[in-house]
Every structure is written in structure tokens, then in C-alpha cells.
Fold this sequence. Notes:
The complex is a heterodimer.
Chain A (H helix, E strand, L loop, with lengths): L1 H36 L17 E3 L9 E7 L16 H7 L21 E6 L4 E6 L13 H11 L19 H5 L9 E5 L2 E5 L21 H4 L7 H4 L1 H4 L8 E7 L3 E6 L12 E7 L4 H6 L5 E3 L15 E16 L2 E4 L4 E4 L8 H10 L2 H9 L3 E3 L23 H11 L19 E6 L6 H14 L3 E4 L7 H9 L7 E7 L7 H4 L13 H10 L7 H18 L2 E14 L2 E5 L14 E2 L7
Parallel strand pairs in A: 2-9, 2-10, 15-16, 15-17
Antiparallel strand pairs in A: 1-19, 3-4, 4-6, 5-6, 7-8, 8-9, 11-17, 11-18, 12-13, 14-18, 19-20
Helix pairs in contact in A: 9-11, 15-16
Chain B lengths: L1 H28 L15 H10 L6 H13 L13 H36 L4 H15 L2 H15 L18 H21 L2 H15 L2 H9 L3 H13 L1 H12 L6 H6 L5 H10 L3 H29 L7
Helix pairs in contact in B: 1-14, 4-5, 4-7, 4-8, 5-8, 6-7, 8-10, 9-10, 11-14, 13-14
Protein name (chain A): ABC transporter substrate-binding protein
Family (chain A): Belongs to the bacterial solute-binding protein 5 family.
Keywords (chain A): Signal, Transport
Amino acid sequence: MKKNWLLLSVVLAVMFVLAACNNDGKDAAKTEDGKKDKPEQSEENKVDTTTLPMEITNEGDVIKGGTLRVGLVTDTPFKGIFSWELYDDAYDSEIMKYTTNNLFATDGDFLITDKGIGKLDVDKDNKKAKITIQGDVKWSDGQPLTAEDLIYPYEIIGHPDYEGVRYDDDFKNIVGAEEYHDGKAETISGIKKIDEKSIEITFKKVSPAIYSGGDGLWGYAAPKHQLASIPVKDALIASDAVRKNPVTLGAFKFDKIKNGESVQLVANEYYYQGKPKVDKVVIEVVPSSSIGEAMKSGKYDIATSFPTNQYDSLKGLSNVAILGRPELAYSYLGFKVGKYDKANRKNIFNEKSKMNDVNLRQAIGYAMDIESVGEKFYQGLRVRANSLIPPVFASYYDGTLEGYHYDSEKAKELLDKAGYKDVDGDGIREDKDGKKFSIRLAAMAGSDTDEAIVEYYRQNWKEVGLDVQLTTGRLIEFNAFYDKVKADDPEIDMFMAAWGTGTNPSPVGLYSEGAEFNMSRYVAADLTTMLEDIDSAKAMDPKYRSEAFRTWQEYMSKTATTIPTMFRTEIIPVNKRVKNYNVDYANDTQDHLQTIELTADAPIK
Amino acid sequence: MWKTIVRRVLVMIPQLFVLSLLIFILAKLMPGDPFTGLITPETDPARLEELRIQAGFYDPWYVQYYHWITNAFQGDFGRSYTYKIAVSTLIGERGLNTFWLSLLSAIFVYLIAIPLGVLAGRYQDSLLDKSITLYSFISYAIPTFVLSLIFVFIFGYKLMWFPTSGTVDVGADPGTMAYYWSKIYHLLLPAITYAILGTTAIIQYLRSEIIDAKTQDYVKTARSKGVPMRKIYTRHIFRNSLLPIAAFLGFTITGLLGGSIFIETIFGFPGMGQLFIHSIMSRDYSVITSLVMLYGFLTLLGSLLSDIIMSIVDPRIRID
């Protein structure tokens, strides 16, 4: 027995020594980094996101060709469904950005322009759209792109056996889509081939959203010559044409695919903007635990979907430039003020609900110190949001909105005014009738810092006298969270979540009376009018539409049933041997991949 | 013996049946379903409902179970909801990766553990023995992900001796020598990491068996006959001391398909451990149920194999 204790103490002693070594190592690393950083680093540990560039244009002589190495940061293998009609994995689409079958180029507002392969002409009076292929465009296997290839994706999505999410309300806006889907028609009657280079689509209604790829318009071509012989039912999605050798239109084409791990792309000699200057692109899955180290050691040129909370690991690296751009997303705090009526598929606002007091909601918003959370937890890579439209959508975003900046005095004032007073003197406010008042917040479990952030907000609320408890007592796992929020669980008074907005900013799908995703369940006649206005025929005039967006944003800010909390910045580390790489959304999918050049044979270490 | 084996295989059937019922019900009880993760402002909730109906999620559970179990009997384990390919193909792909990784690490485990265990037992209480014990305690105490991270940083990124993710270089053409070498090259670092962490049990068993054996009568007899120590260790003690290790062998064989979530995540190695965890998180029912059934079957098979192996290597044991 004595011996065992001795052994144990030896083991423990060794452990302590090891631990001590570790600490030493860490400190040493820190001071080293500190030295390097000093010139650029500001006093506060905060990133000024406005200084992050969107483009890298290194000087220096370029090499001929070369291989661009891309790290795809994910802890799960990608699915490998390389078809725009069938995929639903974000990582698959990251890879497909290099090969794209995109028909249209878009501008900074994600509105379709004439600069792409296809030209869109909308005839709003006859509810028709004409798509024309501009010039001679070829697939990556040398076959010409024809009108048939423009029609085929509609026939895949509308097919009775199609299993994806894209056969939706929008898609049914195409005349004849439902009949085709129900098997009553051989083709979609609203889609007609005019000649070898153009097609015409007839819609039930045409709104301004069509320029954002809404209303059922589909933005991609599909290689009919390769896919036509493969049945949609079960076979297409498992076929080699989708998984092993897809035919594409983009700057690069698939060469080798190692499912779930890596993809090798080569320059597409038939690319309509000319053959890319780089010969090859290798995209590899990199675990999030080591991407910082990988960039440091020059393993990759570009890291996509880089985890923001690892920004520290990139600081002070001499071989890596950090690009930044706003994410198409916002976080928000929603208040439950009603229920969703499943049978009639509409939201029903309940005036008597616990959270239906605009002063209370506004006070909750003012009490949150979002500014500090953005600075301390996200190093400034997330900032307080003032609106429900991310600033990326420059023409629709209302930058003048104040939103809910941190002001606990104002919060207290509002609560006093609304009649939430501390009657029994315990520091916690009671409700209007003097009864105990506690708000239940549902929050999602995600990264390591989520718990700390929610706790911080709860402290904020406590400071103004509001007792906020977590639904279920802890953070809730993703699936369970949405199950509860969607089902209007009575245990939820308010909830914190986020939306990725996609490129179509129209708020109808999230805030209208019929929208199941309108999770606060707030409905009002004037709100409905505003939402209709945004997608109305009048709004085909860009100025009118932008005004309509602003009116709606102001209204939402005032009623505060959904308070936007944070906008995010995405960071993209790029090795300094890369030249002419641009991440601006206005150029994201088009016009730039072929211009990338490299100034060294291997990434700089 | 054959009778026993047949009987045990027959007993497996009701066991697996109960397991299938339990796992099926538990999987369905989890909040959410495979379509929950698809919601964005651009997806149409009505379409998601349609897909749920199409997938039969609104049928009563026993109807769903009946469909699933009858298909499973015909070898059709359904299709993965997230990967959209047959579950058997998916598990085949991942299983093969995991199999090679586990096989290589098992080889490394025995290569490291057997000599160390023998040395520790033979030179009991020496400095060597103590160092080996210390090593096995440390390797037992270190969490898998810590050692994996340290190794990937040192050998992958700093020294650049090994690749850091994937199972094979994407540029290599299947079938060539370069391809197979690349596969082995990608396996080495994770396999070594896995092996270093897995030696403790074998070292300790072997050590104590050898220490026990040293005082046994047959050793004394051999020594009094004048058999050299070397021969006693290699011929007599070693063989007998391997018995408890042979007892694990069945589980080791079937465990080759187990996979390790930490190793696979840190080394970016698509294997069974990751598939299992990810299928649970994304509620990929068909994959979850198939994997649990597979693991259940392998565990039962492992214990049967271990018994058979024991009866072969140790003539004193008879299974009837």
C-alpha cells in the first residue's frame, strides 16, 4: 500500500512538472507574439473590422500556373453532392463556388446584372421573364451550353420524385410547376424554349424579388446532355454525374474527388472568361482544431469558413493576410407574443400575452450590453446590430436606425413607466399587478462562449431589476431548441437565435402572417401592408423598394418584437503568395477566380 | 463446441431484436428530425412538412418500425437522410477507413505493449520496470484529444513528417503503388497516437502474469533441470502469460470497426466514430439505427470469439 502511494506521488510530481513546462511554453509564446504585434496593435484587444480588406493584391513576380491550396474548415466530412439542385450541405456549396453553374452575375445588393453568362429580361406586365445565353458558352467537357440546359434544372426540382427543399412556394409560382410535380403534365407549361440560346418563363406573379433570384427563378444551369438519362428518383443524387465527375461551367472543373476529404480541381479551358491562370486547386477538409497552425505553417493558401473565435491564432502572422467581409446573417432576440395556427397556416397574435408590452420589450433591449459582448467575446468581429437587414444589402439597410444601444437608465425608466415596479424591495421588479415576475429565455448551445454570454446578459437584466431564467435551466441543443421555439412552448417567453439571410433580403418569409418561421408570432395589419409593399409591383422601382425596406425596418425596431442583436464579420485568412483574390460579395461567384495568380511555388511559411 | 456456438448465435437473435426495438424508439424520441437542420429564411416550411410526410415520419412508430425491420432483413438498411446514399455504402466506405486505421494501431499496440510488459515483469522493481509503469500510467491518464493535438502540431505542422488530414492524397491515382503508400502514410500518425494511448491494459496484465508465473512450480522445475533463463521466459512464461491477452482478442477483432471520435476529428479522418456522432446530431435515423445494430452485433460476436479463442489456446477451458 505504501509503495502505491509512493508511485502515485511520483506520477503526480511528474504531472506537475509537465504542467509547469506547458505554462512556460505558453508564456514564452505570448511574449513572442506580443513583440511581433506591437506596431499594429491598438491598446484594446479589439479588431477594427473596417480595416480588414476584401481583396489581396500582392506585388511580386508571378509563377506560371501553380496549385492553389484551399483549407475547408469543418469537423465533419463534406457530403459530396455536387449539384446546385440537390445539395443541402454548406461545405458542398463552398467547393462548388470554384466550379459553379451560375448563370447570372450579381451586384453588391445581390441583384442580377447583365454581366454573367445569362441575361435576364423581365416583362412585368405579362409576368414573363426571358433568359438569354450571351455569346458562345461551353460546358467543361466542351459541349455547348444550350437552352435545354437552362430548362433542365426546373425539371429536376419540379420532378414528382425530387426530394430536396427547393420545390417550394416560390417554385410553384411558375405556371405549370404544380401540374408537373403532381404528374399531371409531361413538362412545365410555363417554361418555353424560344431558340437554342433563350428560354421564356411565365409566372403567376412577378415581384422585385425576381432580381434576387426569388419568385421561382432558378440561377443555375444543369448539363442535360450528362444528366438526362439518369432517373431523378434515387438514382440522380447517387450518380457519378453528381458525385464523381460533374460537368460544370465555372473557372475550374472537377478532376479528382476523395469523398468527404478532398477535391482536386483543374483549370477549365472552356471557361467563358478565359482559362484561369492557376493550373490546379486542391481543397482539403481541415479540422477546426488545427486550421490556425495550418495557416501559420503555410499548408494552405486560403481557409474558408474559418472559425471566428480563432482569430487570435492568426494575429501577428507574417505570411498570412486577413481578409474580412460582413456575413449574410444576424443574431436576434425574439419575444413570444402569439401562437402559430397549424391548421390554417397562419400566426395569431395574442394581445394578452406576457411579453406584449412594447416598453418591457424595449427595456429588455436597452438593458443588454451587446457592445461589450462584441468587444470582449468576439474581439470586435461581431458588433451590435441596429436593424433586421444586414448592412451588406447596401440599398436596403437603414444605417440611420438607432436600434437598442446599451442604456440601463433608459431601461429602468421604461420599466417604471410600464408599471413593472419592485414592490417587495428584493431588487427584482414585480409585474403590473404586483405579482412575482420572471421571464424565461430559451438560448441555444453552441460554442464554448455561449454560456458565458447568456450569463452576462442575465446579469444585465438583473441590474435593471428583471429576473430572467433559462428555459429548461440550461442552454438547449440545436434540434430541441427549434422544436420548442417552433411549437410555441409555453416555457418560452423570449429566445435568442440567428438567421442566415441568404441573398434574397425579402422579409416576407420570416415576419409575415403566414410565415411559420415568424417565431415571435407577431401580426399586425400595418405590418402586413408594409411587407406586401416591399414585394409589390410598384417596388419594381428600386428607389421605391429601398424606401419600403426602410419603413419596415423602422417599424420593426419600434415594436421590438424581434430585436436584432449582432452583425457578424467573416474572416478569410489568405497566404501572401496569392495575388488578385477578392472576397467582395459583388465579385464572389463570378469574374475573379480566373485572375488569381501565385508568386511562389509553395505557400509562404 | 459447435453446438455451443450455434446455440449462442441463436440466442443473439432475440437479443438483437430487443436492441433494434429499443434503439428505434429512442432514436425517434429525440427532439428534431433530419429536416430540422435545413431551416433558413429561404426554405419553405410547408416543403419541409411535405418531405417529412414523404419520409413517413408521421406514420405510427410501429408501422415505421415494421417497414424498417422488414427491409433490414432483406439487407436494405435504408438511405442516409444527410448523405443521400445507401446506408450500407456509407458504412462500407467509413468502415473500411476505420478498419485499416484500427488494424494498424492494434499492430502497433502489440508491438509496443508486449515487449514492455515482458521486460517490466521480468525485471520487476528495477528502474526499467518503474519507468515502464510510469509510462503506462501517463499514457492512461492523458486524454486522447490532448495527445492527438500535441502530435498533430509537432509531427504534422512543425516537423512536417506526416500529413495532417484525410486518408489519402487526392492527387494519387487509385491502384498505383503511390496510392497505397499514400494511404499508409496517412494512417501512420493517427495509428501511432491511438496505439500509445491503448497499451496500458496489456502492459499491466502481462507484467503481473509474468510476475505470478515466476513463482509457479513449472518454472521452478525447469530451473532445477538447468534450463537457461532466456528459454524459460520465451518458452514457458511468455506463452502462459499471454492467456489474458488472448481473452481480449475477440473484442479487439470486432472492435476494429469501433472508431474514435477524437482521433478522427483531430486528424480529419472520415471514419465510423465521426459518422456515429454526426448521425446523432443531424438525426440521421437510418444511420443511427444501423450503426447501433452493427455495434451490438459486433459486441456479441466479440464475446463469442473471445470464448472460442480461449478454448483453442488454453486446453483447460472447454466450452460446452
